[in-house]
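tool_log.txt
---
The assistant was asked to compare two proteins side by side. It first ran the structure predictor on the initial sequence, then on the second. Raw inputs and outputs are pasted verbatim so the downstream comparison step can read them without reformatting.
(1)
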Amino acid sequence: MAARQQGRMSDAENQSCLMVSEDAVAFLVCGFHALEEWVGIGQVEDYLSVLEYLLWVFTPLAIVFILPFLIVILLYLSILFLHVYKRKNQLREAYCNNLWDGARKTLATLWDGHGAIWHGYEIHGMDKIPDKGPALIVYYHGAIPIDYYYFLANVIIQKGRTCHSVADHFLFKIPGFKLLLEVFSVMHGPQEECVQALKNGHLLGISPGGVREALFSDETYPLLWGKRKGFAQVAIDSKVAIIPMFTQNVREGFRSLGTLRFFRWMYESFRLPVAPVYGGFPVKFRTFLGDPIPYDPNVTASELAEKVKQSVQSLIDKHQQIPGNILRALLERFHTKYKAE
């Protein structure tokens, strides 16, 4: 009997304790909600949710505009290397005619490695570049002509030659670029200087579209050469062959906002190439060299310019799907070998 009464008392005590604990939990919950309301945790969560959404939206945009600057950084690192190289070899400069050969080969190896790793870079038709003697290489200009840098690197590595290049005037005004342009024989393009370089037996690369093509061409790959024929006159005066060149997916690697009206107006009015470039995508790059167009004394500069334009256009038609597509160009990285038609 006593045991039964003791059991009942124990049950009552348990129930009482349970009620107390439930009240404590309820009190704690109410206290937490009151604290949450007082501190504004709910609003903080809303802010964090909005911030997370903004990061999700703008992170890809930030990346595609930051990656092109990495190429600029790589260029300045190349310039820094040249300055260090020059400093270490100042004493040998007076005794060595090929002071910069080692620097060119080193940078060519670095840029070729970058092309192989980031773009799976390939070049087809390198046998059309002569081992000796002059030739004029005419190419399509991407938003950033990084494919041309890879080509120059391959000429140094495979042919043991330095290809001279013609660049726009604004490039010579960029701080710190002077040494890089000198070492790699870049000129601003007077016809007399170009003719002299070819007559001296050098290779010379030029893009008739230049900055205009870089900024205002798009994924449909139009050639924006206008009525330019100076390059053709250079070839005629030098009596050299012209080798057309085009790089597949170069517009998918980097794209320009130059098609927007404001940037077009800025260039046409003030010749300021200020259109933002975005991209840096690791798409597949394949450079194709067409059949050389031999010197013909009976062809005028206008006729030769049109003939070269058609040759470059045929390379685009044959090797580039129009319009270009970034996703497709990325997937082409998995096609390890190009099947020649």
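(2)
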Amino acid sequence: MAEVLETDVVVVGAGIIGSWTALHVARAGRKIILLDQFPLPHSRGSSHGQSRINRLANFGDAALTGIMRDAFTQWESLQQDSGSNLFRPASLLALGLGKQRQLLEKIAGSVEAGGHTPVWLTSQCLKDKYGINVVDDGMAVLDPSGGVLMADKCLAAVQQVFSQTQGIIVDSWPVDDILVATEGQAEVKGPRGTVRANVVVLCPGPWAGPLLAKLDVHIPLKVEKISVLYWRIQNPGFTTTTFIDFHDPRGHFYGLPELEYPGLVKVVFHGGPEVKPDERDEGGRDEEMRKMVSDYVRKTFPFLHPHPVIQETCLYTCSPDQKMVVDQYITCCCYSAHQTRRWWWIST
């Protein structure tokens, strides 16, 4: 028998963005259901894995600086509420070439605007302390606020506190369609039944494109399969930390310190082959990506073994300008222009 659930607000997608959204709504005193199409926890979207970089540094967008400062406050509050250690300090290195000095200056400015002091490092310092080889005109700025969020623990903590705030999580609930019912409520429909709500918030990650298309909202989102690679330290003695390297015209590389696996660091290229989220392991260019990152590691990190020992995958959902999209879609009910149903949708 098909289920019918009633609520004030329903959030579709229980990744980190959907879960945080649901928690804020629950704290506002609204009755809310958080839906996910898979059994939780799972590794089929973008929020799984052990670690993510967190930092104040950005590309000079004043609005982002305020958001990032608030994010630090929110994570600290969540640590207290959940009783979990979610953040580990690891200063961020932003690396580039002389021609990218303007970009690095914007990054340094964003760190300073966030209340920290950026530190400019010489190529010799990078080599001596961090074991990083850079060309003669290479340069770096350090963000001392940087660190690592323990991703799986973060997601579990958000959902834990959400449940304690009387929020309801329903997993294994795929969504096929979103409709306006005759009485004006929105109906989120799927194989298991219907969820009726006054407000629908869509945070479906890699599935955003197809789901938004059902509302006749079309955004050219691109889903990329990222090869997450781990490399063995063969010459210990250097400081491993978080970094982002902008020198390559194809895109940037990034990395995290020895943290998740003993004796291994994470080094990844920020990009990958375009895939469909339900067909992520069909085709692709995994070997090509491994070779590209291996070449980079061999040149830049001589203290690492130049062949990865562990490979995992993650999905990025990218807008054309690489920026977040947050918007609303309003439909007026046919019997009253003053009654509206709202769908909020969020994509990153």
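---
observation on (2): The longest helix spans residues 62-82. DSSP finds seven helices and 21 strands in the chain.
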